Amino acid sequence: MSLDCPQEANLAAVAKQLHETAVQAEEQIAFAEQQMRAAVNLPTVVRTSTANFTGISSGTVQDLNQLTVATTFDNTTGGSGFGPQLFGGFTQFLGAGLYEVGLTCTVVASGAVTDNSIRQFLIQQRRPDPTALLGEVVIQTSGIVLFESNTGVGVEASFVGEFRAEPGDRFAFLFYHENVGSTVTVNSGANLWASKISESTLTRVL
Known about the structure:
By secondary structure, this protein is an alpha+beta fold. The protein folds into two domains: 8-38; 42-199, Jelly Rolls (Sandwich), CATH 2.60.120. The chain is built from two helices and eleven strands. The strands form two sheets. Strands 1, 2, 4, 5, 8, 10 and 11 form a seven-stranded antiparallel beta sheet that branches. A four-stranded antiparallel beta sheet has the order 3-9-6-7. It starts with 13 loop residues before the first helix and ends in a 7-residue tail after the last strand.
């Protein structure tokens, strides 16, 4: 902290000087408190699917942004219209910085289960680019691969990725499987969420 202190040449104004110093201290304490509160109350949006997403065929990358969702938590003050799966809305509103983005869901085969077939879950950071074929480019990808034995009980997945994003970047949630015996369903109750965990100007995450 950098606070003013009384000087020997200014003894006549010691009382006033001390008052000013106290005000400065209170301002800096208030600012520090805001930073600490922000660290435990990060800008976050959580969206939860309200219906099963059925008929996902083997060998096809499925965009889970098509899930029917409802906003179950939003402290961004931007309204429920901002969500991690909407094109650029989340990062456009909150600005450049480090984002933590997560997916939690359960996928179940609609019929036969191909022994030890894969279930791949991906989160991609995509940036608008008018020169690209689809109008955007992939900046970074985070994901996991799970395997399902022939039990038919489904696979539960939960993971997060951290992305240094710019305003307008969006996060795509993708699913892929190789269960050739039947299609796969993403059960309702899947959670897609994102938090801004730091500004881009910070050299480290606090």
